[in-house]
Design goal:
The chain is an all-beta fold. It has strands at 11-15, 24-35, 40-44, 55-59, 63-68, 77-86. The strands form 2 sheets. It has a 3-stranded antiparallel sheet with strand order 1-5-4, with no helix packed on it. A 3-stranded antiparallel sheet has the order 3-2-6, with no helix packed on it. β4 (55-59) and β5 form a beta hairpin. The two termini are 22 Å apart.
């Protein structure tokens, strides 16, 4: 999923376009973001000793959601990988 920029202290949602039902099981929800000026890359979700620097990632039946407590909007290249099974 192309997520583009990370949010500035809030939650951003992007539709994933997957048909989700009772038989859907998420296997992996992960991603990576790049800050192009300094070519700095981070994994999503992102863990930090500083609470405001953490980045949370989750998926629901319609969207991929990323929440930040501080400004991560300089990271303008963000891609999320979703793996799932359907029964």
């Amino acid at each position: 999923i192309k997520f583009v920029a990370l949010p500035n202290a809030g939650t951003k949602t992007v539709a994933h376009g997957i048909t989700v039902n009772i038989g859907t099981t998420w296997i992996q929800v992960t991603g990576c973001a790049t800050e192009p000026a300094g070519l700095i890359g981070i994994n999503i979700p992102y863990s930090s000793d500083t609470a405001n620097d953490r980045i949370e990632l989750w998926v629901d039946n319609t969207n991929v959601n990323i929440t930040t407590a501080s400004d991560w909007s300089a990271y303008t290249r963000c891609y999320i990988l979703l793996e799932w099974l359907k029964f």
